[in-house]
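Next comes this protein:
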Amino acid sequence: MGQCGITSSKTVLVFLNLIFWAAAGILCYIGAYVFITYDDYDHFFEDVYTLIPAVIIIAVGTLLFIIGLIGCCATIRESSCGLATFAAILLLVFVTECVVVVLGYIYRAKVEDQVNHSIQKVYNEYNGTNTDAPSRAIDYVQRQLHCCGIHNYSDWRNTRWFKESKNNSVPISCCQPSITNCTGTLTRPADLYQVGCEALVVKKLKEIMMYVIWAALTFASIQMLGMLCACIVLCRRSHDPAYELLVTTNSYA
């Protein structure tokens, strides 16, 4: 029974190391996705520290690739030193991912206040040109999220761009794609998106932060299993005279 348990632990550990390599790629992808998405919405969210969880996720992903390499070598060779190092690094990464989860929840709670504070300013800076960053950001968000204005399309009446243009219309990015020859005129409100952008931007940013939180929780659970298996192998190797190597060699580490 004992030997069956130790063999199972070693087999699971080898399998987990392969999962760590896959996890490394997934975590780096999630971190990169957060960076790219933040770049599209950064005018609506001024706190750059929100990117800290994404930075940590990318760092953890890079470290997981190294951990998988160390873990595979240490498990196959069954080096006590290698397995101890493997377990120690896993513990460090596990703690780091717990920090990511906490930071994710903290910054997720701040999203709504940040967006509420900055979105009016961004809309007031709109000038309708592609060379202007706030203008590009607003047009992108309105097209991608199918929204218009802060709460609805009528909010454009209070913007400097609307008052200066004096054409009683909103940006073309407010037009529904199914409507042909839409000019953004307020005399045809049915041609425009009816939903405001503020709530949708908040929802999008909160969803992005939840991706980070769930990724960290998922891989933290896998790492906990890896630490448990590594500790079982180490303890049995130290105390069980009947311990057998997964791969038989002429020397022991």
User: Anything to note?
Assistant: Residues 80-124 form the longest helix (45 residues). Residues 173 and 227 are 52 Å apart (CA to CA).
